[in-house]
């Protein structure tokens, strides 16, 4: 049996990018997916969890929080509305999904010692800084530490929590960022800092999410998994090109 076959999983941000790829991968591997996009109100999340529980015949097995927005700039230039927007979607939205999903998981009996699994989507920019990141990086760094706390707090109850920190992924959001005027050279610079010399695909993040949700990851919790083509391995500064390896 596939290790996610029969699981009931909530996926936010399911309309495009990483969320859509994750939903498709889980469906292909036999899971039931309840997807959502855009809505961030608490009442909407209560309804979302209730719909997933109904689809699962009284239980759910986990969630992937892939909903997110880009935004930021230099700190002295970011207005309060933009700060609140980015933090609200990326960090507070993740918190609310985790809060309501975990509330449901705690009511369920353990299956093979586990009640469920939470997979949040952070970013390499939640592990290290990038110029102009401000609000976005703060939001994703918050997701990383929130997820570690979830792992500590709910591990004794049989709930695992892990976060994926993608490198630059070929999604509509990344495309919009790099299509901005003056970003051509910046995009090339980011590409060259990935050791594999390419951007990632949403399906590659989906594969990692699928693993973390599955029983194959039964002893993995509190981990920030960089799926980044080697971006956080360290800086290159053009040395491999000089040595003939690019």
Beta-strand share of residues: 5-15%
Strand order of the largest sheet: 2-1-3-4-5-6
Mean pLDDT: 94
The main pleated sheet reads as: 6 strands, parallel
Rg value? 18 Å
The separation of the N and C termini measures 42 Å
Describe this structure in words.
The protein is α/β, with parallel strands linked by helices and 246 residues long. It has a six-stranded parallel sheet, with helices on both faces. The longest helix has 26 residues. It starts with 7 loop residues before the first strand and ends with a helix. The mean pLDDT is 94.
Write the layout of secondary structure elements.
Blueprint lengths: L7 E5 L4 H12 L3 E5 L5 H14 L6 E4 L14 H26 L10 E6 L12 H21 L4 E8 L5 H7 L5 H9 L9 H12 L10 E4 L11 H4 L4
Parallel strand pairs: 1-2, 1-3, 3-4, 4-5, 5-6
Quick tags:
6 strands; alpha/beta; 246 residues; 13% strand
Briefly, what is this?
This protein has helices at 17-28, 42-55, 80-105, 134-154, 172-178, 184-192, 202-213, 239-242, and strands at residues 8-12, 32-36, 62-65, 116-121, 159-166, 224-227. It is of the alpha/beta class and 246 residues long.
